[in-house]
């Protein structure tokens, strides 16, 4: 018997940013190389045939967040919300929880945790006893309102002594940054590329609904220096990869800065790569988080603008 490393690419029922790692992960070409390895058996779960699902050996039918109940802790905020299914799961699609319950049963896992219902799991996930509301259980949260998860005595930026913390001793000891400060770095390429989410996409979700050449904002002075015209195809490149975008000449970005949206699918560029191919898989200097949103690149005209 041959054993395989088996990663699971999970859609998060199409409502989380962890889906579609080929598009969302830094150093895209390295991710594709890893998923293409012959000794890697991949199980995928999604509602769309994404760029990541194309590397899966088995695809399980996920349902969307409209098709199952759940509890959501807001991303970046402090509110808790409960939802109920708007429609039954379509076809053979299932929530993640039910998929894992069935897999556990098939593989002979008898622990109680693999048999608990969605309602039981939701109640276990949150302790509401310390909230300043009359709600004591998740099931009591109204689907028409949200629940604040802040403690009643919470003070923003506080060290719990009613003082705002400006200098952080633990960050100083671990990273040498008790106070955030500017640190000059050597630029390996002349331009810095800044990326952010697109208004019409939820990260890479819905990226396959409208596939077209993505735009990149370029300062007018930089465009003039490189003889780049508005609407012209340009190439952004570095040691990690290259992507073709359409020039959008605008004063909204400073000289030396390029701006483009993340989340486009591979088909949007003739190179079969997106801007995530250009991002290094480095960690941030404070907190050791993933550095998703900027990198250094070359900028060149890809072809002359056709009249």
Walkthrough of the structure:
14% of the residues lie in helices and 20% in strands. The chain has helices at residues 21-24, 28-35, 96-106, 118-125, 169-175, 220-225, and strands at residues 8-10, 43-46, 58-61, 70-73, 79-83, 147-148, 191-196, 215-218, 233-238, 241-249, 257-261, 294-301. The radius of gyration is 23 Å and the shape is globular.
Q: What spatial form do the alpha-carbon principal axes imply?
A: globular
Identify the strand order in the major beta sheet: 7-11-8-10-9-12
Sheet with the most strands, sense and barrel status: 6 strands, mixed, barrel
Name of the CATH architecture of the largest domain: 3-Layer(aba) Sandwich
Query: Low-confidence spans: pLDDT under 50, at least 5 residues?
Result: 11-18
How many distinct beta strands?
Answer: 12
**Whole-number tally of structural domains:** 2
> What proportion strand?
15-25%
Question: How do the SSEs run, as a string of H and E?
Answer: EHHEEEEHHEHEEHEEEE
Helix-strand makeup class: alpha/beta
CATH topology of the largest domain: Rossmann fold
The separation of the N and C termini measures: 62 Å
Briefly, what CATH class of the largest domain? Alpha Beta
Helix content: 10-25%
What's the Cα radius of gyration? 23 Å
Please give the structural blueprint.
Layout: E1 8-10, H1 21-24, H2 28-35, E2 43-46, E3 58-61, E4 70-73, E5 79-83, H3 96-106, H4 118-125, E6 147-148, H5 169-175, E7 191-196, E8 215-218, H6 220-225, E9 233-238, E10 241-249, E11 257-261, E12 294-301
Quick take:
The chain is α/β, with parallel strands linked by helices and 307 residues long. Helices cover 14% and strands 20% of the residues.
């Amino acid at each position: 018997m041959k054993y395989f490393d088996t990663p699971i690419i999970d859609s998060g029922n199409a409502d989380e940013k962890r889906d579609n790692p080929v598009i969302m992960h830094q150093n895209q070409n390295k991710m594709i190389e890893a998923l293409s390895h012959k000794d890697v058996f991949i199980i995928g779960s999604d509602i769309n045939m994404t760029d990541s699902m194309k590397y899966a050996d088995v695809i399980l039918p996920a349902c969307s967040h409209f098709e199952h109940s759940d509890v959501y802790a807001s991303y970046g905020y402090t509110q808790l919300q409960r939802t109920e299914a708007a429609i039954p799961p379509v076809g053979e699609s299932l929530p993640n929880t039910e998929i894992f319950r069935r897999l556990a049963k098939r593989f002979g896992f008898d622990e109680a945790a693999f048999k608990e219902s969605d309602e039981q799991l939701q109640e276990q996930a949150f302790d509401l006893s310390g909230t300043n509301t009359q709600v004591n259980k998740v099931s009591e949260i109204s689907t028409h309102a949200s629940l604040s998860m802040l403690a009643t005595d919470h003070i923003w930026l506080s060290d719990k002594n009613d003082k705002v913390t400006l200098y952080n001793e633990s960050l100083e000891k671990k990273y040498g940054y008790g106070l955030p400060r500017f640190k000059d770095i050597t630029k390996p390429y002349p331009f810095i590329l800044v990326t952010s989410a697109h208004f019409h996409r939820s990260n890479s979700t819905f990226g396959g609904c409208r596939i077209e050449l993505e735009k990149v904002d370029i300062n007018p002075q930089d465009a003039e220096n490189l003889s780049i015209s508005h609407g012209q195809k340009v190439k952004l490149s570095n040691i990690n990869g290259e992507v073709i975008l359409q020039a959008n000449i605008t004063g909204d970005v400073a000289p030396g800065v390029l701006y483009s949206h993340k989340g486009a699918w591979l088909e949007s560029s003739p190179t079969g790569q997106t801007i995530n191919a250009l991002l290094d898989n480095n960690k941030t200097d404070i907190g050791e988080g993933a550095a998703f949103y900027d990198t250094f690149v070359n900028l060149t005209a890809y072809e002359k603008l056709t009249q």
